[in-house]
Amino acid sequence: MQKLPTLRDYLNEELKDKEFKKFYEEEGRKLEIGYKIAQLRQKLGLTQKQLAEKVRTSQTVISRLESGDYWQCSLRTLEKIALATGTQLDISFRK
Fold first, then answer.
1. Fold for domain 17-85?
2. What separation in angstroms does the CA of 11 have from each of 7, 14, 44, 68, 86?
């Protein structure tokens, strides 16, 4: 009987394609930022609506940010989140 490939096997094969790898890494960065926002919000015991009120935006915007969908998100919005949560926004470039 032939062993079925795992998701990791499939992903490793797909990552050999440079275009797929670039897209995959970009999506990973988006999800990482969204995850960090959600983690911070939950640590502070805030709902999405409560954070949105502190940032002076809508709950929908916070939801989109947390899901990694921030195509139109501005740096200013991220700065407002940092200010509202008493944290510091840190942006870096790595190679």
1. 434 Repressor (Amino-terminal Domain) (1.10.260)
2. 6, 5, 35, 20, 38
